[in-house]
Amino acid sequence: MRTTAVIIGAGQAGLAMSWWLAARSIDHVVLERGEVASTWRTERWPSLTLLTPNWQSRLPGFGYEGDDPDGFRTLPETVAFLERYARLVSPPLRTHCRVTAVRRAPDGYEVATEQGVWRCKAVVLATGGFNIAQLPKLSEAVPSGVAQLTPVQYRNPESLAPGAVMVVGAAATGAQLADEIQRSGRPVTLAVGEHVRASRTYRGKDLQWWMDATGLNDERYDEVENLARARSLPSFQLAGHPDRRDIDLNALTSLGVKLVGRLAAIRDGKAQFSGSLRNVCELADLKLNRLLNRIDEWAAENGVRDAVDPPHRPEPTRVEASPPLGLDFDRAGIRTIIWATGFRPDYSWLDVPVLDRKGNIRHDGGVVTEAPGLYLLGLTFLRRRKSSLIDGVGDDARDLSAHLAAHVRETRLGEAAGLA
Amino acid sequence: MAKAKAGKPVNNGVNVEALFGAQEALKKAPEAAKFKWRATVEWVKGTHSRTTVEKFYGLGAEQKHKEKFAFDADHPEIFAAEDNAATPVEIVLAGLASCLTAGVAAVAQARKIQLRSVSATLEAGMDVRGILGIDEDVRNGFDGIKVTYKIDADASPEDIRAVVAQSQKRSAVYDIIANPTNVTVEVA
Q1: Which residue of chain B comes nearest to A264, CA vs CA?
Q2: DSSP symbol at A381
Q3: pTM exceeds cut of 0.80
């Protein structure tokens, strides 16, 4: 089968790209391993809500139309939202069509799937950056009596063994799970490394309202000071609960969650924690205050000072004088460990040598320069701070579809010249 | 030269341009980033010993300090020793203090903050029933370390705190102390 461009993945990124390719009259197909919004459907725990408010889901030609712009979608609502978008875009979609290989071909790329082979000039990898839950090597040393779960496997607190739970990692996922599990009556120990503290609302507005209004979400990848760092930062400690509650470390401590330092080692059935808890909390407090300073400056300069509540600073993270440095799983009654230690993309089917030694694709704002015609979409800070948000993927798709269109035009001209 | 906000060049005596250059170079050559630090110790008498450092390995080759440096260590008289030099645990504190302070200077330079003075006091608690074998439940080492910095610089108190926090984040000795390390001691 032949087409001009193949989009792999029919989540928000693949659909937005299809919208733009159709707008540019570029013949394409969208290949999806399952149904539209597959990851949202099958690989996240049921209580997950979007971390961005409903209004903040502007996709090319589409947006929120309900009467609760400041609410947060549940998982089924998110799937339904993307299904509605899919109906609007009505992409040339092949569902249940898992890609088994992408490789170079003389005139572009060859995409092998369960439903046959496509030849094309361009491939857009819209499979996302959060496919595989990462496990640290030290997970191998966990005592056999302790169940280990990733956030992909986790369903709800009730499905965990009775007893205490250790959650490793304090980004959005770890903090949300610690909150939910502690509330279920299972005592949680949370191992905290570097994290990004956030508060759901500030001066009476949602944090994402500020990120949007100030232009911080639009900050470009080629403007940011340390791009590698921006791309590897843990996610905001945020949840999208109807009560807009915070899930920062102070909120979790108030619930009864026990904070310990980064899980540094496991030896003889005992966990060892880093003595750096105080400093990682200090770093996170200072970072949040810098963000709030930028927001306040923007509010002052743009005259919204009187339209919002007065500035305040959150209480510094409370860290006990001597946080525990070790813990015996057995004696502490810990029956389950949840590894909220991040996700990574799955490129096991990619047969094009563009991976760096950490398994990420080398790219310039989503353009894989070493493999002309290959594009990435939907990754953290791909082209903008908002790139990994539903709200951010549309602008990236517009930019990259323009690049893709130019690439297709050039290769066609090249071929025509070759024929002449 | 980096310029401070007031327009005066910031100079903390740290060549950050060279450090950033090394950062870029080592990104491309991770093998060259693998260093080995070495020390040699000779017993003098009693609890008195002398450790010297001279050679180390890095950037893919054997390297050498400009001269051989020596560090005596001993124990105070209340430990029935001669007090010829600092105790090894004080030398650990010196290592932490020096590492963090070097970090403060480097981070401040990178952030274009002019330092005027930097000092810190360190205090570490220890229950010596551990090393004396009186109580197996008491650990040998410190039960905590408190570092208190006094910094005079052209920056807000928050920016100064951020420099100190970043210095901890990037400190080798802080990491060595705060995190477990495998130690293998053999008799040749």
Answers
A1: B179
A2: T
A3: yes
